[in-house]
Amino acid sequence: MDNIVNDGFYSSIERGLDYSTLRQQVLANNIANINTPRFRRSDVAFSKMMKNTGSNDNNFAGIFSTHQNHFSLGDNGNNKTAMFVSQPNDTAFRNDLNNVDINKETSESAKNAIYYQALTQIAARRFRLMKDVIRGR
Questions:
Q1: Total domains present in the chain
Q2: Are 35 and 58 in contact (CB under 8 A)?
Q3: For residue 6, what pLDDT is reported?
Q4: Residue 63 lies in a domain
Q5: Within 10 A of 24 (CB to CB), how many other CB atoms are there?
Q6: In 3D, which of 52, 11, 49, 36 has the Cα closest to residue 102?
Q7: Mind giving me the DSSP string for 1-12?
Q8: What is the mean pLDDT of the chain?
Q9: What is the DSSP letter of 136?
């Protein structure tokens, strides 16, 4: 009963929300650079991120920056909070060697927004359930 709050659920939700937030930033950057010659699209490696963070680690201390172009969360510039952002080897399909496909980026952005919304709804339901349990309902 003492682990009802610290059961790993909220840290998993937090990691998912952090992933989704970072992915939205990366997708927005891709879209913003659609007309930049030689720009290579980036994406967030979800499976690597989740593998590198243990269930008892709720602050991404297991993730580290291995390249200067990795994004980081927070303003402190601490590379221990950096998440792995990769540049897939997508073939450039335009003459300027830019490989951003606006249709793919906007559809991925919409999927990411749905994922984020689902996580927030799950967390809200869990909070309501805990509140009802505390109130004895």
A1: 1
A2: no
A3: 67
A4: no
A5: 17
A6: 36
A7: -TTSSSSSHHHH
A8: 77
A9: T
Q: For residue 86, give the 3-state DSSP assignment.
A: strand
pLDDT of residue 94: 84
111 vs 80: CA distance, rounded Å = 28
Contacts of 4 (CB under 8 A, 6+ apart): 130
Apex 134 CA angle, 133 and 137, nearest 5: 50
At 101-114, the pLDDT tens digits run: 999 999 999 999 99
Of 51 and 20, the one with more pLDDT: 20
What is the rounded radius of gyration, in angstroms, for the C-alpha atoms of the chain? Answer: 18
Q: Compute the C-alpha angle 35/37/43, nearest 5°.
A: 75
Residue 40 domain flag:
yes
Q: Note whether residue 102 is domain-resident.
A: yes
Residue 28 has pLDDT above 90, yes or no: yes
Q: Which amino acid is at 30?
A: N
Q: What residues pair up with 82 in beta bridges, in sequence order?
A: 72
